[in-house]
């Protein structure tokens, strides 16, 4: 009996990637993104693959989507008209923010525009203390008066963030009920549902962001679901979260703030899974697409998760795969600043018009154009020959805009563009490794995205990373990640208490409560009990510290010994992260967390045996420039490389959706799953 057809669609800045898996066969495809109407790119991709692979869309049994709609809305400030309701005296929390300054010597710095302007921020009389005890009862007449104001203001969404609502959410619930009863037709976001954790600014900001994004995401998902249904697809749409897990479209509509790093998270999941197949579990992932380069760290097969992430100018405290982003993608534009220095990015040529070499009206030199000039990309292989590459236009523009002003040759200018871009990406790789207490020499670098494999081997050489892994589907790995990612739901609540005062029974009871919610949610998605897993962690800190670290909690019942084990794990983690620990100092519990995981069945990614030899996989030779030196280089057809084969660099391996550049002195082997393993420093 034929298996269901599974489809993953990830929208990038330049291309929309589509991966289909059916009866063990993995097919990949790309189509240009449609930034003004991203759902059109999804439909274009589905149409393209269904026609190419000759199947009816009704055969799709699973459809997952990585989206940047919420991210773009935040970056561009294009969100819904939102009102914020807070405890009396806390109206200006969003305006005050934190004292943290990116550059303490910049006297011209401006704070980001508040998500909700002051004339849309309202107060109600109520007050809880830090343990959830009622100091001032909710003034319901106050809320009814507020309802009349909000109806007149005609807002689309209401965010409610009351003081210490994570200890007791009854006041927030009552405010919402009164506003709805008084006829306010709007969507609602409560901090006790969005982020029931300490830190008033972050909690209020995250709740306000969620409220402002709900109408935006609701429209997008609604339009996409309608178009997908019109195509004949009967499968329920799934959405990738920032934490690397899949959720239903309905939950994504309710919690759009959880999808802010949807696309990059899919890539990390895909990289972790594919590398794990060949026994690699300590990884630095590098996803270089058309507009940016996203890097992350995976330890022992688990991506690091953070609750301290910034999207644009705004800190978002929901669980997110710890991803650091720099503006270095294939479409990043090279330019010369006022001081005469060569710069690359962060502005990108994007999908429309794209780099000059795409022949679609691009007029500024980009990283992709530089790679083309240095012979690293085959002009006839762009998007399987669908783009008309204008090599002479590229050469002329680089000469006029970069080479001539800097008094260098076109080749030197192109090499300079790559050197600057690589320096930016090397800094990002150090941020997620060296700056967080990890030695990059103990990790492998997984390169993916359309442009990642072009740069990874050089970056690994510079950072003393011993191995580069390039998955077979590197150019569309974020889309593949959607098809192998588990279903995830995160639950949390802050309970700031001295660790010595925390009762094991009370802690266990809170975990049980979360587990019951998670079980109900996973059960509603028709998951068997043996596919459900529940992972417990707590956030701890030394008394007096401002921030905390997450520590795993032992399985089973909790007793005094388990509590001591948790404390020891905290000291260990603190020593690794900061280089010191204080075992004699008192510890505080800050937040209790549980992750409910629905484990999905993963596909067999072994490619069909190609037969043949390494020599037969050489399709061409051409001159490629390495560090300014032109070298005659063999070009390998990736699909023709036999499993288990190996060869020496220099080499260029050309695939359908990505190109790998192997430098002189490096050695390549092909594993059982078609991934390339490049030994960098032999």
From TrEMBL:
Residues 6-182 form the Hydantoinase/oxoprolinase N-terminal domain. Pfam families: Hydant_A_C, Hydant_A_N, Hydantoinase_A. Residues 506-678 form the Acetophenone carboxylase-like C-terminal domain. It comes from the Archaea. Residues 203-490 form the Hydantoinase A/oxoprolinase domain. Coiled coil: none annotated. PANTHER family: 5-OXOPROLINASE RELATED (PTHR11365), HYPOTHETICAL 5-OXOPROLINASE (EUROFUNG)-RELATED (PTHR11365:SF23). This is Hydantoinase/oxoprolinase family protein. It comes from Haloferax larsenii.
